[in-house]
Amino acid sequence: MISKILITAALFGGAVMGAPLREKRQAAVPQFVLDYAPLVWLHSQEAYNPSDISAQLANTQPQHEFVAVAGPSPLTLDNLNQLNSPNTTYLTSTVDITTNPSFLKGVKPDGSGKTNGAVSAAIIVNDHGSGNVDAFYMYFYAFNWGGIVLGQNLGNHVGDWEHNMIRFKNGVPDLVWYSQHANGEAFKYSILEKHGLRPIAYCGNGSHANYAIKGKHDHTIPNLNLPDGLIVDNTDQGTLWDPTLSAYYYAYNPTASSFTPYDSSTPVNYLSYTGRWGDEQYPDSDKRQKKFFGQPKYATGPTGPADKQLNRTDVCPSNGKDCIHRGILVPRDL
């Protein structure tokens, strides 16, 4: 494996060569959105890497209550929103996922941090005016492995959207949100671990929840994030991923709830899809399904980026919980 020093050099020393091309391709994207974009450490044992967003359509079929739904053919990121209806549509794997089909595994980033041949992120900019800008860095994975709880594998699902959000004031990062399962954590940018200007996110093995430090993270109690416990995410410095190298870029208009791609060739209609990006939760009668204390082995796939509260008042989504702007990194490694 390339050493951390060489990876850093590739991302920052190499950025001198790579940045002009990226800036030319995305000339209208605010430069600070790129300069401060998070870098993600995937776990050293990660089996389900970042995935090509469009590949999810090529390997699934739209269903509702496990019955095929009529829709455009072929299904693309440009017409996915045509599946919107009062009934929720589920992008259901065409292959039994217990066989671990290859599309679920995604694409491991190369030595520069790029997912070659796979557009695996969507970067969405919400300019509130008066110098206040929120940049959402949306990460896509074809599969979420839920982990082991008391010897039981629970909480798996096809499709996985996670994200960081950075709140900028006059082009300067102030706060950073890390999505984690049903909620997440917010930190002051100044105290975060960084490569150069870019904050680091540590990705939970299989679950893809984002954390500000490596190590163990218990999420039995949301918002508490203890260094060990019953339901644990594991993070380390396995493979470094730079989501900006293979991403779609958009400006978001909260008044119209609309997205405008910075590059006219970029697909956009998939962001308006209101259905699920994976299978519907299998019923108890399905031989693949098991439950442990009411928790299923296979859960329902997630909604997409538009459902992540892109027009927030605070850096945290509004969910009835306090929004804590953490000024220290906890828990610390033991």
Key features of this structure:
334 residues, eight-stranded mixed sheet, five-stranded mixed sheet, 4 helices, 22 strands, 32% strand, globular
The number of domains is: 1
Task: Give the total of beta strands.
Answer: 22
User: Low-confidence runs (pLDDT<50, min 5 residues)?
Assistant: 1-26
What characteristic shape results from the CA principal axes? globular
User: Strand share of the residues?
Assistant: 25-35%
- For the CA atoms, what is the radius of gyration? 19 Å
- Helix segment count? 4
Signal peptide: 1-18
Protein name: Vacuolar protein sorting-associated protein 62
InterPro entries: Vps62
Keywords: Signal
Short précis:
This protein has 334 residues and is mostly beta strands. The chain is 9% helix and 32% strand. β2 and β3 form a beta hairpin.
Describe the model.
It comes from Lophium mytilinum. It holds the Pfam family Vps62. 9% of the residues lie in helices and 32% in strands. The protein has 334 residues and is mainly β. It has one domain (31-318). The longest helix is centred in the first third of the chain and has 11 residues, at 15-25.
